[in-house]
Specification:
The structure is a homodimer.
Chain A (H helix, E strand, L loop, with lengths): L15 H15 L6 H8 L3 H7 L3 H6 L4 H11 L7 H13 L4 H15 L1 H4 L4 H17 L7 H23 L6 H14 L3
Helix pairs in contact in A: 1-2, 2-3, 5-6, 5-9, 6-11, 7-10, 9-10, 10-11
The structure holds a DNA duplex.
Chain lengths: 196, 196
DNA sequence: GCAGTTATGGCAGGCTATGCCATAAAGGTT
DNA sequence: AACCTTTATGGCATAGCCTGCCATAACTGC
């Protein structure tokens, strides 16, 4: 891709995704709040300073790991049938991203579980989280025929994101008796009934 | 009220609300991110350690200042006419808390402005914020006839809180051409139209 | 005056995060 | 080969938030 530059100076020690995978293993083993950047640095084999260069903030290790889901969400939102209502379109697109059971999604679920179960991570407001919300806001604005998102679109987009996070939270902490689709349907369904 | 205990040991140096007022003045003067706990401690005249005892976290200085709004919100939600739809009831209650122009609310607005304009504060997920959401979730659950909040109620409550925060954000950063009621109406209106 | 109680404040330490800079490792140039 | 440029690394210092521990201060009751 774009990483095909011939490189001039000293080559990096490792790929960022390798480091992330190693770090996430450690985080899942010990818990996000109970493993320090120093411990992570030792676990993945770089200095603390370098680790901070790969991941500006500790939360980025986890949040950045689901960055690809934003692109997937955007694509899914673009491909939804026009005759769906906005909320149905959102449900369909989100389910398309999180509901499938490929290996990718299995990892994605583990990451989300990590985020959802760690208050510090939920609050962290990472760039990934922002991008995700932006995608939802843009979609809502488009549906409303707005060139630039109004307050209404921003509020709805952000609200939907919150509802989705809530659904994923319940799913993450629930036993095996509920699946993602069910949780998402209930959460977004509640939103749909609000107007009635 | 409940503070009428006869006191045994050493009396506190100051009332927590006095400290909060002093600290908030300093925070509003310099900006939340640009004033350290050390600076605040000096400004209000207590040690850093003691300041941390009054306010477990820096964010609590600001968030705690709008704690009373939770009670106000709960009361307002209790008194809404039953024939209002859920979303109308929420709009009416929230407007009742934030829309009036008493001196109290003027201070409340300043606090909210502070929170809304500071990313660190928005993300902080304070106890006050949690309590506020809890009130909304409980109301939604009650409306849905649930003894204990379901996922749907939790999602809707949290989503509504997000929409409200978005409305307050726009209002806080907007010029003087929009008032709170207008912003809240647009944000919640967007949510209402979602089901259509 | 003495004991018990409560609040304060200093100190040490752990944590995340950033700036600065010397050093290492690669490619290109002469 | 020697040297320069470029890029990455890692160590050091620093700032800031937060907590535990403990000595000390201030007030009440005996």
């Amino acid at each position: 891709m774009t990483t095909r530059t011939p490189r001039r100076g000293r080559p990096p020690l490792a790929d960022i995704e390798e480091l992330r995978a190693l770090a996430l293993t450690e985080i899942e083993r010990l818990g996000y709040g109970d493993v320090s950047m120093a411990a992570l640095a030792e676990a993945v084999g770089v200095s603390v300073r370098t680790l901070h260069r790969y991941f500006p903030a500790k939360a980025d290790i986890v949040w950045g790991g689901i960055e690809s889901s934003i692109e997937a969400l955007k694509e899914a939102l673009d491909q939804v049938d026009d005759h769906f209502s906005t909320i149905d379109a959102l449900y369909s697109a989100v389910l398309g991203v999180f509901g499938r059971d490929s290996g990718d999604v299995s990892i994605l679920r583990a990451r989300l579980r990590l985020i959802v179960l760690s208050p510090e991570l939920r609050a962290s407001q990472s760039a990934t989280f922002e991008g995700w919300r932006e995608a939802l806001v843009d979609f809502v604005a488009r549906r409303r025929g707005e060139a630039t998102p109004s307050l209404a679109a921003s509020a709805v987009g952000a609200a939907v994101q919150t509802a989705i996070m809530e659904a994923l939270s319940w799913w993450a902490v629930a036993g095996d008796d509920r699946d993602v689709a069910e949780c998402l349907a209930e959460a977004l369904g509640g939103l749909r009934e609000l107007g009635a």
